[in-house]
Amino acid sequence: MNDLVESIPEEAFEAFYKSQGRPSYHPKMMMKVILCAYTQSTCSGREIEALLQDSIRMMWLAVTVKLN
Fold first, then answer.
1. What is the pLDDT of residue 36?
2. Torsional class of 41: left (φ above 0), alpha (ψ -120 to 50), beta (otherwise)
3. For 30-42, what is each residue's pLDDT tens digit?
4. Which of 27, 6, 4 is closest to 15 using CA atoms?
5. Is this structure's pTM higher than 0.70?
6. Residues near 29 by Cβ (< 8 Å), separated by ≥ 6?
7. For the packed helices 27-39 and 45-54, what is the interaxial angle rounded to 10 degrees?
8. What local confidence, expressed as pLDDT, does residue 64 receive?
9. pLDDT tens digits, residue range 12-56?
């Protein structure tokens, strides 16, 4: 999954960056986390947050970024 998302060119994600507001998470990191959660039949934001705290695989994909 990591290799798949990393193969997508950076230009594809430029439209998702905004120069205003709070600093954003990198779209590739978010895509990796969401795709991994979906492969585990987890669609709830709260369940994904719990996976990010408990799953080594999810922590690695998120590069140990604390998501709020």
1. 92
2. left
3. 999 999 999 999 9
4. 27
5. yes
6. 61, 62, 63, 65
7. 100
8. 61
9. 888 877 777 787 788 888 999 999 999 999 999 999 999 999 988
Tokens 């709020």 belong to which residue? 68
Length of the chain: 68
CA nearest to 29, candidates 5, 53, 56: 5
| Closest by CA position to 34, among listed 15, 61, 68, 7 | 61
Q: Whose structure tokens read 């950076």?
A: 10
How far is Cα of residue 41 from the mean position of the Cα atoms in its chain?
Answer: 16
Residues 6 or more apart in contact with residue 1 via CB below 8 angstroms: 32, 35, 36, 39, 61
1's tokens? 């999954």
